[in-house]
Amino acid sequence: MRNLKKSVDRIIEFLTCTLFVVMVAVASWQVLSRFILKSPSTFTEELLRYSLIWLAMLAAAYVVGKNQHIAITFLRDRLVENSKITLDIIIQSIFLIFAAVIMVYGGGRAVSLTMGQISPALHLPMGLVYLALPLSGVFILFYSTTNIIELMHKKKKIPYINEEKKAS
């Protein structure tokens, strides 16, 4: 499972880094064509907008996989280790439900509804732009599932408080 997670990490890292490099190149071309060549490029703004959507969605999935998402931890910090793991499992389960219902199901419906719409400058089906939502949802489903499995293994290794007191 860890090897699969590392492979998925590498895929997302490659996609996001490549997308970022392309965005920097396109933004540089936009500035060059507008201010130096005095002939603004027509597709760059739209390409940057759609690329940013893809970058943000893929990066969000990656962050869930690395467990580095924004969290309010004042409740978690007051719990004992076993309760912290239980809370983390609940949080990952909420991620799982959200990704399944909103991102994969809802995003899939958005893709199917917008495949007939064409973007003005790039002439791409808008469904391709919205495809970032269900795809990143699938990645979040994968990462949340692996995170829950890891947390359950971790929880099995930590003795309960009552067991600790009995041993002393």
From TrEMBL:
Protein name: TRAP transporter small permease
Alphabetized InterPro entries for the sequence: DctQ, TRAP_DctQ
The Tripartite ATP-independent periplasmic transporters DctQ component domain, residue ranges: 23-152
Transmembrane regions: 12-32, 47-64, 85-108, 128-149
Keywords: Cell inner membrane, Cell membrane, Membrane, Transmembrane, Transmembrane helix, Transport
Localization annotation: Cell inner membrane
Pfam families found in the cross-reference section: DctQ
Record flagged with keyword Transmembrane helix: yes
Record's bilayer topology term: Multi-pass membrane protein
Family the entry assigns: Belongs to the TRAP transporter small permease family.
